Automatic annotation (TrEMBL):
It comes from the Bacteria. Keywords: Kinase, Membrane, Transferase, Transmembrane, Transmembrane helix. It holds the Pfam family His_kinase. PANTHER family: SENSOR HISTIDINE KINASE YPDA (PTHR34220). It comes from Cytobacillus kochii. InterPro entries: Bact_2-comp_sensor_kinase, HATPase_C_sf, Sig_transdc_His_kin_internal. The keyword Hydrolase does not apply. Residues 56-133 form the Signal transduction histidine kinase internal region domain. GO terms for cellular component: membrane. This is Histidine kinase. One of its GO terms (molecular function) is phosphorelay sensor kinase activity. The chain crosses the membrane at residues 6-31. The keyword DNA repair does not apply.
Length: 247
């Protein structure tokens, strides 16, 4: 015969069992929904990242044809002037430049690689402009292995030729400086064109907007900036982005 105490416990269990089962099912349902939400968020982040990289690569591709076209124009001008020795040297340098470019296919390169790339470009321009062109490149030792988006400095250097040196007679001065400031890299490209020498603000702006967009995509939420400063002593472009190394 069942005691009153055992019967009471049995009744309590009969009442609580469905409630416990219901709470368990509810917990599992909420947990499953949370897992689904996390998976959905992960997929959305992955898709967003893929779209950002696609846009980043597209912006990179917008820079390359423009640079190659201008370099070929520089070499063509040597051929028209029948400067055979300089022409041969420029073609050799251009081949090194192309080899260097297509050896890697990454979304970022080191500052050292970018500067090597620029030196090839400036060698070609030095052959073209001869004694008219003077340039200087300075870089802190600790920035050589820092990462940078491809063609950042190249675009700024090329703008100096396209919007200044190629349009105006006289000596052309160019200075590239790369230094570390706290946890950031500061790239400064100065050329001797003053505010009266530049009349192509729209095209300059397009190039800077391209760099600004690529910096934003590559460094995401990190602080980046690109600024154009024009004065009587020349034109300066300053780009700032986070200091990140391969390691």
């Amino acid at each position: 015969m069942i005691s009153l105490e055992s019967f009471s416990i049995y009744i309590i269990l009969c009442v609580l069992a469905p409630l416990i089962g219901a709470f368990t099912l509810l917990f599992l349902f909420i947990f499953e929904k949370r897992i689904d939400l996390i998976e959905k968020e992960k997929k959305e982040i992955a898709i967003e990242r893929e779209l950002q990289m696609a846009l980043y690569n597209q912006l990179n591709q917008e820079i390359q044809p423009h640079f190659l076209f201008n370099t070929l124009n520089s070499i063509l001008s040597l051929a028209r002037l029948d400067r055979k020795k300089e022409l041969v040297y420029s073609i050799e340098t251009f081949s090194k430049l192309l080899k260097f470019k297509y050896q890697t296919n990454t979304n970022n390169i080191t500052v050292n690689d970018e500067l090597t790339y620029i030196k090839y470009y400036l060698e070609i321009q030095k052959t073209r402009f001869r004694d008219r062109l003077f340039y200087e490149i300075e870089a802190d030792e600790d920035v050589h292995q820092a990462l940078i988006i491809p063609f950042l400095i190249q675009t700024l250097v090329e703008n100096a030729f396209k919007h200044s040196f190629e349009k105006h007679i006289g000596e052309a001065f160019l200075k590239v400086t790369v230094k570390k400031c706290s946890q950031s890299i500061q790239v400064t490209v100065w050329n001797s064109a003053n505010n009266q020498a530049i009349d192509d603000y729209n095209e300059v702006g397009i190039g800077l907007e391209n760099i600004k967009a690529r910096l934003h995509l590559f460094y995401s939420k990190e602080t980046t900036s690109i600024n154009l400063l024009i004065s009587e002593t020349g034109t300066t472009v300053v780009a700032v982005f986070p200091y990140i190394t391969k390691e």
